[in-house]
Amino acid sequence: MTSIRIPLFALLLLLGACAPLPQRAGIPTQWVPSPNFNERKPNFVIIHHTGDDTVEQALRSLTSPLREVSAHYLIGRDGKIYQLVDERARAWHAGESEWGWDTDLNSASLGIELDNNGHEPFPEVQISALLRLLADIEERYHIPTANFLGHADIAPGRKVDPSRYFPWKTLADHGFGLWCAPPYPQAPPLFDAEMALRALGYDIENPVAALSAFKLHFLPDDETAELDESGRDLLYCLYLKSSE
Question: Distance (Å, rounded) from C-alpha 78 to C-alpha 127?
Answer without folding.
Answer: 10
